[in-house]
Amino acid sequence: MVKSALVSQGYPRSALFQSLEGGSQGSRELLLALSWLLARGPLLEQLLAQTRVQLGDELPQCEGETLASPGPPAHRMETERPTDLRLVEWLMGKLRFRWRRLISSQQEQCALLSKIHLYTRGCHSQQRLGHLSVAETEMLRDPESSRQILQALESENNRLEAALEWRRCELVFWQWMDTVLDACSSDSPAVTSQPTVLPVISERGLGELELVKQELRALQEELREVAEPRRAAWEAQVGGLGRGPDWSTTRKALQEAVERELATLQSPWEPSSNPAQPQRPLRLVRSKDESPGPQGLKAAEVIGTLRAQEASLKKVLHQLQSQCRQELARLAGALPGLIWIMAPGH
Amino acid sequence: MSIVTVQLGQCGNQIGFEVFDALFRDSHCSQGLCSKRENEAYQASCKERFFREEENGVPVARAVLVDMEPKVINQTLSKAGQSGRWKYGQHSCFCQKQGSGNNWAYGYSVHGPKHEESIMNLIQKEVEKCDSLSGFFIIMSMAGGTGSGLGAFITQKLQDQYSSSLKMNQIIWPYGTGEVIVQNYNSILTLSHLYRSSDALLIHENDAVHKICAKRMNIKQISFRDLNQVLAHQLGSVFQPTYSEDVSFHYRRDPLGDLMEHLVPHPEFKMLGVRNIPQMSENSLAYSTFTWPGLLKHLRQMLISGAKMEEGIDWQVRPPFSGLPPLGKMSVHKDLHFNTSIANLVILRGKDVQTADVEGFKDPALYTSWLEPVHAFSMWKTQRAFDKYEKSAALVSNSQLLVKPLDMIVGKAWNMFASKAYIHQYTKFGMEEEDFLDSFTLLEQVVASYGSLGP
């Protein structure tokens, strides 16, 4: 299972999968795999983030990006006998019910959270926060849970201190891994592996970055070459059109429309440097203050971002739906004499 | 999770009262045959779902009462208040001074829009008093004027405003030989509109309930109150608390949601019927004993043969033999109208409920071919007895039970429509013949869909 997980992450060394369980070669391969995982991404930070003790009430993370791209079309499933369409509709209906009940539960959770925040106003030692979170309220009500949270916090502290210690000694580890890899290649030269550059801290993936930069430059050059003549041709065509105040307002409106379209095209591709997109979990606080502080966000901003995401997802949905409709129409057209009757409620 | 009930018209309000009364009485019944702690949990669950607390401690029903004339509402309010055990909210009702003369179009096109804001505000206030809302009951008759037209309108507005909440319409199916000439028009208009905007239509047939009163309860002069009490008993046997499926024996949080997921996820199949057993007068109850095998055998046959009650069941009706080619004799069986189900929910309450064996309901022959019994059948139970019945079983069924009555009503309405009788009463309030035609189309489709379930 570990091996298949590594493969799905793109681990390049095939020697791992050929090695026997146990034995010095096996454990060496495991060590190399571990160091590969550590090197390629902020693994340690991710693990620490996942096991954080949550004291405040948190905003659910925005998962819009993963859903915005439609992904590859689903494979057509071959089954032993054709599935009755009514069964599919039955299952879809069940999904819809579950979805609605989930929304109801979330609304309930919001209402209760709001009550807790209201009722515990003035209870928090930190003036800035003002009221308690659910975890804090629970701690006050039930001494057992406060003991458990304390234990969790202590073990998290230990993990953090271990991580800091690791950071101090990391360089030694990488130098050692270099020697291990050398020993590996000298042991079995028949094992063909792409020269995996085990990253030393200061040169992380520099080669790849260089490659990407070059590709990007080439693309930009290409774009410019194609765009210039078209722009010139358009200018020539349009330049003689109209003058006067009417024309300039139309032109301005056109420019604004184009800019807006460009913005909507670009926004899915922008990295999350949007200030209204929280990079790390934030604590929900109900407060009369206007200013959320330097690290904070106003609820209105987050709502705005979510609404924008909702709008773009809806657009994608409509596109997909019209694609489906066109496909259905094409299929219907292929069968003469077929009449479509729309189901009630559509 | 809580359910807010909207009681519409004379019918809806009278039945609504009996429902709340039955629920309250049962939850405070001392003959629950279970431990004190169990009883308290049962009571608390029922209370949270259907009632709310007010300052002086008398529980208030989570309900909104709507009628176009004040008489019935006033009666209902005072009956509830007098008992001293529970009551309706002081400001939970809406009524006007005039009736609507059994005119569906008047209820839908005039009363509805005119009073929409006031009624929806009342509902909103009741919803805000719920910590968590599961959904709505809308109790209404199908064939009257106010209840049906206004009910269709309000259900649509509920769908717009509370799209994530569930809606179940409790529909009173009129007597076949009813008094209102245009009842069939009203019925098809109501049904077709509700089919589009509601999630589930739980149908209560007056004829069936009447028979239960006459034969099982031995009531000589059957009043509406008697009918309503039988109906309330049926609803209570479905929605009173039952255990949830997971290991921790807690009462189910959201019976309405669980029921809907099991029974009506398909948009073409929304009609539900309810049966329960045993039904008898309180006097006879003391002298009767029941066994689970006996009760379940009868209930199963009631399902298969489409019987309305446990008397006069046709035991000749059998499920068709699956896998064998139809013999000459099979046509005889087909005439006996075997009732094919899509999905069934059986609810068992009372002593030794864990010994009850429901294998008979998992027979694939009972169900349509495209849904397997493991998905089609579900069971809820609790050992806490319901309404003094030591053992009782209820069945909520999505099956062909209602095809015949529906087909009859559509047929009669069509005959009237073909000669344009009484249409002007509807068109003068903004409705068009097109609306009638749409209703006929939709209901014909429903009849066809249910009809094609056959073995």
TrEMBL record, chain B:
It is found in: Cell projection, Cilium; Cytoplasm, Cytoskeleton, Microtubule organizing center, Centrosome, Centriole; Nucleus. Residues 47-246 form the Tubulin/FtsZ GTPase domain. Its main location: other. Coiled coil: none annotated. The keyword Transmembrane helix does not apply. Belongs to the tubulin family. Found in a complex with TEDC1, TEDC2, TUBE1 and TUBD1. PANTHER family: TUBULIN. Acts as a positive regulator of hedgehog signaling and regulates ciliary function. This is Tubulin delta chain. It comes from Phodopus roborovskii (Roborovski's desert hamster).
